């Protein structure tokens, strides 16, 4: 059996990314990124999974059950998305608009407790998190109290030179944390740069650090994790998560690495000013 890869670059044909529980070596989450030419169509046959569709660039006509509409945005750097939610057993259809359409489609096992929905930006909570060199904007685009059974979606905006996910956190069962599988889909502005992402455990020999390009995907299979944008490139990423938490339990927070949580009390305490030393 091939060992799952946790850092994926876009494919040259077919879906840009296509992660299944089998390919990832986990239980719940599926995730794909598709790029359609103008007028091109894609159909997803409803099965036993709830699905969420996130537009990335361009526009499309979409259908799910009796819902029909048009969604899209010029880029993820300028607009919040509309999120199409489809319960299990619901066919999803997509037809790209005149500028083409890039979108994410991910799912998780579900029973069908919630109806088809098109979640609008006005319904989504947005906040500024962190401070100092870890200031970022987090948009809860399909997180509690927006309804889903297992799926949780965030979009995160990280100015150039800043960190996200600091203090590092985990959600793999360690220290009583909830078990959630997660994907990070990255885009950079401008798109010729790179960023960094690290997954690691403190109780076992597991540590992986990746240099990330625009369009890359990282799987968080376990461990604490953080990301950092380079000084010349702003960073956006889209998170899909799914695991043991269901319904309102999806609001439960992860576990933050205790050694680093002191910074939440004062992001400026102990920070150097320059020049640090002089002759």
Question: What's the gist of this structure?
Answer:
The protein is mainly β. Helix content is 1%, strand content 49%.
Polypeptide structure, described:
With 279 residues, the chain is mainly beta. The protein has one helix at 21-24, and strands at residues 7-8, 17-19, 30-36, 41-44, 49-64, 67-73, 83-86, 92-109, 117-119, 125-129, 136-142, 152-158, 163-170, 180-189, 194-200, 207-213, 217-220, 224-229, 234-243, 255-256. The strands form three sheets. Strands 2, 3, 4, 5, 6, 7, 8 and 9 form an eight-stranded antiparallel beta sheet that branches. It has a seven-stranded antiparallel beta sheet with strand order 1-17-14-19-12-11-10, with no helix packed on it. The chain has a five-stranded antiparallel beta sheet with strand order 16-15-18-13-20, with no helix packed on it.
Task: Give a topology summary.
Layout: E1 7-8, E2 17-19, H1 21-24, E3 30-36, E4 41-44, E5 49-64, E6 67-73, E7 83-86, E8 92-109, E9 117-119, E10 125-129, E11 136-142, E12 152-158, E13 163-170, E14 180-189, E15 194-200, E16 207-213, E17 217-220, E18 224-229, E19 234-243, E20 255-256
Antiparallel strand pairs: 1-17, 2-3, 3-8, 4-8, 5-6, 5-7, 5-8, 7-9, 10-11, 11-12, 12-19, 13-18, 13-20, 14-17, 14-19, 15-16, 15-18
């Amino acid at each position: 059996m091939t060992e799952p890869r946790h850092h994926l670059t876009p494919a040259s044909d077919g879906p840009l990314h296509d992660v299944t529980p089998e390919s990832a070596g986990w239980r719940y989450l599926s995730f794909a990124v598709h790029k359609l030419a103008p007028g091109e169509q894609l159909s997803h046959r409803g099965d036993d999974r709830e699905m969420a569709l996130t537009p990335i660039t361009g526009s499309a006509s979409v259908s799910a059950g009796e819902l029909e509409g048009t969604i899209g945005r010029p880029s993820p750097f300028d607009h919040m998305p509309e999120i199409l939610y489809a319960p299990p057993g619901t066919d999803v259809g997509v037809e790209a608009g005149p500028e083409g359409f890039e979108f994410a489609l991910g799912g998780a096992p579900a029973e069908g407790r919630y109806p088809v929905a098109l979640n609008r930006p006005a319904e989504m909570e947005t906040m500024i998190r962190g401070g100092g060199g870890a200031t970022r904007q987090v948009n809860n685009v399909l997180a509690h109290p927006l309804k889903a059974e297992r799926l949780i979606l965030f979009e995160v905006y990280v100015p150039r030179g800043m960190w996200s996910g600091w203090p590092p956190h985990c959600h793999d069962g360690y220290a009583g944390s909830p078990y959630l599988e997660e994907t990070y889909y990255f885009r950079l502005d401008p798109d010729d740069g790179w960023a960094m992402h690290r997954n690691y455990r403190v109780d076992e020999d597991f540590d992986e650090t990746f240099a990330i390009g625009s369009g890359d995907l990282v799987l968080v299979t376990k461990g604490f994790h953080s990301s950092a944008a380079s000084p010349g490139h702003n960073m956006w990423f889209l998170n899909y998560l799914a695991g043991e938490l269901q319904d309102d339990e999806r609001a439960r927070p992860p576990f933050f690495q205790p050694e680093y949580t002191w910074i939440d009390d004062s992001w400026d305490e102990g920070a150097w000013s320059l020049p640090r030393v002089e002759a």
